[in-house]
Amino acid sequence: MDTRKRIFSGIQPSGNTHIGNLLGAIRHWAARQTENDNLFCVVDLHAITVYQDPAELKKHTREMAGLLLAAGISPQHSILFVQSHVSAHAELAWILNCVIPMGWMSRMTQYKEKSKNRENVSVGLFDYPALMAADILLYQTHQVPVGEDQKQHVELARDTAQRFNNLFGETFTIPEPVIAGNGARIMGLDDPTKKMSKSSPRAEGVILLLDPPDAIRTKIRRAKTDSLSGIVFDEGRPGLYNLLVIYELVTGLGRSEIEDRFTGKGYGVFKNELAEAVVEYLRPLQTRYAEFTADPARLDSILAEGAAKARPLAEQTLKLVKERVGLG
Ligand code: AMP
Ligand code: TRP
Fold first, then answer.
1. Which ligand number lies closest to the CA of residue 192?
2. CA distance 91 to 170
3. Candidate list 5, 114, 151, 309, residue with the active-site label
């Protein structure tokens, strides 16, 4: 029996890719590649739901693809492509718009948060989950590995697939979100009550994948903690807990081993060790990233090949959808 699953996930090319993206999402995509059929997509159409400078958007799209390759996504095992290169995404999104009830969209918490205190919010920002549902459903996806914050959107894609199938007959595979237990929600270093985010107003709370070693050391040294003593995993001490989770994930050590290691030691020693561990964890990624960016023609050809492989898969589903709906 074929137990291979179709995996799809996406990431926005909005710059500022951070260690939360890597620990909560990208590293899981890379880890399970050989067991499954994977598509990973740089979602530029999602990025333009808020204004992007055109030249920057182009640059960030290539940068994001380079980072995914540097983080271990292999074009041999996964289809890596740019969303706008496959026009079926936008086309299916329109059709799904006509199937998704307003009430479902209005419940999306990320929209509520993102639109707060903002003027001139685009219709696209509100409609963003419909495009995300199109991304997922076009490829008859079984599993969508994402960080905690995207769970609600994947559930909307699942509900949309079910509603479409009920209205028009079996068409879409029903997808499910896959949320990594540990690391699915890395918090800001400056404010451990808020998730680390590409759009954080303050840069010191966010460890960027391309931060030079000294920037990483400074950010970790200044990370907000508390005045209690003892380096222990205690969710009641959110600043320390977040740093310990990062330490655990980048070193691969067990929790009791980590606590033993820092018994009788203070924040100074722990933060120094954490900083060095993060620097070493990111070093190979940064080296590979430099190699990919040194050869933009190779990067572009990987993306062109990815789109060429994704397109027929997407077209097949779109054709079926159009038949079911009575278009054409
Ligand atoms: P985004 O930065 O919104 O494009 O997210 C790309 C991926 O990273 C998604 O799967 C997110 O759920 C995940 N992600 C974003 N921020 C974090 C975070 N602070 N901790 C863990 N995962 C995250
Ligand atoms: N909305 C996701 C985010 O901001 C990115 C995304 C777009 C995505 N399409 C997707 C993730 C499809 C998973 C599947 O993180």
1. 1
2. 19
3. 114
